[in-house]
Amino acid sequence: MHSLVWFRNDLRVTDNPALYQACSDSDRVSAVYIDCPHQWKLHGQSAVQREFIAHNLEALGRELSALGISLNVFRCDSFADVPALLDNWVRELDVAALYANVDLGVNEYRRDRAVDARLNIPLHRFNGDCVVSHGSLRTGDGHMYRVFTPFSRAWIKHVIRDGYRLLPPPQTFEPLVTGTGDTETSQHHQGSLETIWPASEAAAQRRLTEFCRQHLMDYGADRDFPDLDGTSGLSPYLAIGVLSPNQCLAAIEIELGQLPLSLGEAGFTWLNELIWREFYRHLLAAHPRLSMHCAFKPETDRIKWRHDEGLFQSWCQGKTGYPIVDAAMRCLNQTGWMHNRLRMITAGFLTKDLQIDWRLGEAYFMSRLIDGDLAANNGGWQWAAGTGADAAPYFRIFNPTTQSQRFDRHGHFIKRWVPELAEVPKQYIHTPHAWLSRQGLAQCYPAPVVDHALERRRAIEMFESIRRRNASYTQSV
Ligand code: FAD
Hints:
Layout (H helix, E strand, L loop, with lengths): L1 E6 L9 H9 L2 E8 L1 H6 L4 H20 L3 E6 L6 H12 L3 E5 L4 H13 L4 E4 L21 H15 L27 H7 L4 H14 L4 H4 L12 H5 L5 H12 L11 H19 L22 H9 L5 H13 L4 H14 L4 H11 L5 H12 L14 H8 L4 H6 L15 H6 L13 H25 L1
Helix pairs in contact: 4-5, 6-12, 8-11, 12-17, 14-15, 15-17, 16-17
The structure holds flavin-adenine dinucleotide.
């Protein structure tokens, strides 16, 4: 039997259930990837992530070729064109079955349904993006968890009971001599991108192994300090499936001899972040409306967010006059990546200090991030805005200055990304304006665009008014 594997968000040959099963079931396998530039634009995908995908497709093409599988990369404008394209290709190759891993999101789901309806061959779908399949963890009353801690307990229980399944690379067919298909790429970011985020599964594995050997044990202590190399930097690979979460679990186990499955065990803090990743993916699978700009808590859709393009642009460009926010945004704009602590600070600043709709921040991050991931990005933004499942309580508002003092104490990170502040002594780096004024340099760096104490009170009042209206609504029905 000749089968076709349709690669989407799973650009790897190892631990790829769709590829593995296709190779087990068939005596010949082909592979396809469909690039949809217009659709990706609608989804707000960043140029740097598209570039990263293109490089990884080249690597995937080579890996598959060594297994005797040819990868063809097609381009069509939108998801609407995919069913016809696949139908033609399936007929041309005389393929008997199509294999793919689940791709989350409403448009992706509709595309897959349309493909299924159009093709005369079966479409076999697999869970390839989570250790524990979406939908398999439920509360006592059969719903998806709304709160992380009970979800993580259920996740751990599941892994203790069933373990996790790491698939080997699939069986090899006759290696191909040539032909990895049309992997058209632009060369725009190539030099710097390849240096910081080298493409290929092997590169991802190297980073994973190195992280586990050198940083896993210190992750709990180091992970909040953006100037340290304390986190794995694996998110770009996980977001497009060059690396699987099972591979992360296997690497932890190799390093520690076992999986740390309880709080306080060495290595657990990092594993817990992988569980957060799964929490947001399970939430998105259970509540597809999250991919359509809806707040998890519908009552928060009544919040009257501030419309102020000038303020929004100051945030986007890193010109708010809050050094840690500006350093973080400039780092994002220049590298396509931002440390988790800084994502929390900048998202909190946009939604609480500026009271600007989280959806604008979500879209801006997506348009810039190399690791843009619908589930994690939406989850992170709704957490920061107080509109999400298990969100930060609305009255717990990050103070950007104290966050900066705690997590970039000496201002090393700030100075790296805000060169105007390079000469500011470290005791003034978090609030440099008075010092700059004294030096006659006030015009070099923006004054704070808002007053944190005042905006904090406004943000709390904004949420409390929703709560009051919600309570009176609940009482009246
Ligand atoms: P590590 O600390 O090494 O963690 C390992 C892996 O666990 C990460 O690679 C990631 O896959 C996962 N992970 C870690 N923290 C989280 C988290 N809070 N939520 C979900 N998964 C997590 N992550 C993305 O991958 N893509 C996004 O688009 C994204 N947008 C975010 C937006 C906001 C506002 C916030 C607050 C967080 C967002 N995150 C996103 C989560 C987190 O910031 C990044 O995953 C992390 O910074 C990536 O760095 P790392 O690979 O070094 O992570």
